[in-house]
Amino acid sequence: MTSSNFEPHQATGRWDTRGVSASGSAGYCSFTKAIEHLGDRWSLLVVRQLGTLGPQGFNDLATGLPGRISRSVLADRLRRLEMLGVVSRCEGPHPAYRLTDVGLGLMTPLGALRTWAETWLPDDPAMVERDPDVMLGWLAQRVDRAHCPVRPVVLEFRLHQTCDRRYWLVVQRGAQPYGCLTDPLLDPARYVYLESSIPALLALAHGRCDWSCALRDGSVTAAGDPALMSRVGEWFRPVPEGGRTRGDRMRFRWSRRRSARSGTPKSRTATHQ
To answer: Can you tell me where the transmembrane regions are (predicted)?
Structure first.
């Protein structure tokens, strides 16, 4: 049997790289450099945040990035991005970080990466437990503020897999919705208690499933004031007709199978004190 060009020669212990062209090697090296400098969890999130929202102060970045980044890690990533020429620091009464022209050049590839991920990558249920504020942020983006109640309403989410943990989303007409990891302690009469599986909630957060459908088929169960419960679906933007990609349909079927395997009956009634 003849050996591959990429198998090491036993006599020398070296790799035969004759099968790699100069142009291919150069492209691979460039890709490796990009991963080495930007492939950690936070660097591209910082770039996206600055490219989407414009110049941001350190505290704004620390609180606005999805997930939980420590201040020391954020400072390290900003120093690295400055060294690469991706980010610059604006001095003045209110110092802020902004993207340079080099950094702005990353926005198009990041947009393509996001489109690919939304189309082909399945949801990660463990992410909800690890970074629940990310899921709350997705839900907040789907709120239709023009159709929310005039007085604040608190949506309390309880997940089948983690019944001891709850998350809250506050909605109000014309106001920016916001998520809470602790009870906001607003008027108890203005709470709607929602219970679902993690995959079902992620499908709602990504706009792959309509709230009225989820409530009707039992994917989500609700308790609270009947007048508020009946209007929950109106507070979120509807799923566009024909707006699901092939990847959306695949992920939704995958989510529903995960829900079925969890063993939670669809007719389960949410009960809360």
So the answer is: none
Cβ atoms of residues 99 and 51 within 8 Å? yes
Buried b (16+ CB within 10 A) or exposed e, 223-242: bbeeebbeebbebbeebeee
**Residue-wise pLDDT tens digits, 81-127:** 999 999 999 887 888 999 999 999 999 999 999 888 776 666 777 88
pTM higher than 0.70, yes or no? no
Terminal Cα distance for the chain, rounded: 72
CB 86 within 8 A of CB 48: no
Q: What architecture does CATH give domain 35-107?
A: Orthogonal Bundle (1.10)
- Give residue-wise pLDDT tens across range 6-54: 334 444 444 344 444 445 555 568 888 888 889 898 999 999 999 999 9
Q: Residue 148: is it exposed, middle or buried by C-beta count within 10 angstroms (0-12/13-18/19+)? A: buried
Gyration radius (Cα) of the chain, Å? 24
Classify domain 123-261 by CATH number.
3.30.1050.10
